[in-house]
Design goal:
With 193 residues, the chain is an alpha/beta fold. The protein is 31% helix and 20% strand. The chain has a 6-stranded mixed sheet, with helices on one face. Strands 3-4 form a two-stranded antiparallel ribbon. A hairpin with a 5-residue loop joins strand 7 and strand 8. The longest helix has 15 residues. The radius of gyration is 16 Å and the shape is globular. It starts with a strand and ends in a 16-residue tail after the last strand.
Length: 193
């Protein structure tokens, strides 16, 4: 299952709520946060983005090969070594997971709908402008002009994956079946994923 939406839209909260419900239903879920798959550590990311005038903000910042490998480990029921960013220290840790004991993988993140073989794709239809209060409460990143440039670029990239959604959660947090995508919608593909 893949859950996508813009910054502060509630992806992590939805993932955790779904995981709890799955657990109550007798399934063993595992949440995989794609924020852990950035190629550059959080402490270095802003400087790099500024240095290239924000040209590479977006889907290319993920280590898609590692993400695909970890999802493959889940599908094969193997042990997996996954990245885990400590949000306090910014340090990259490694988490060992035994996927043989996991029934459902819930992947959340900005570009989670970039995972082509997800069995269910959910898109939370809130923009960063609508979630600024949530972002401020989280306090994960400063709210300055640099951050606004990042949010705007992420908005464009996240929106490009919307057509892949099976379900859309609207502004009132109501769930709707997504309309059939146009045949011409080839946007949003990344690295053949």
């Amino acid at each position: 299952m893949a859950i996508s939406g813009e910054s502060g839209s509630g992806k992590s909260e939805l993932s955790h709520a779904l995981a709890q419900d799955l657990k109550k239903a007798g399934e063993q879920p595992k949440i995989l946060h794609t924020d852990n798959y950035y190629r550059v550590a959080p402490s270095e990311r802003l400087a790099l983005r500024i240095a290239d005038n924000f040209k590479h903000v977006g889907v290319g910042e993920y280590d898609w090969d590692l993400l695909k490998s970890n999802i493959g480990d889940f599908r094969s029921g193997r042990m997996s070594l996954m990245p885990c960013i400590d949000i306090v220290s910014g340090q990259l840790d490694r988490l060992i997971t035994d996927f043989s004991k996991v029934d459902v993988l819930v992947v959340d993140g900005l570009y989670a709908l970039g995972i082509k073989d997800a069995d269910l794709c959910v898109y939370i239809d809130l923009t960063w402008r609508e979630t600024r209060k949530n972002q401020a409460l989280r306090g994960k990143e400063s709210d300055d002009l640099y951050r606004l440039r990042v949010l705007e670029k992420e908005h464009e990239d996240v929106l490009a994956f919307r057509y892949r959604a099976d379900l859309i959660i609207d502004h009132d947090y109501l769930v709707h079946e997504a309309p059939d995508p146009d045949d011409a919608a080839a946007e949003g593909d990344y690295a053949g994923f």
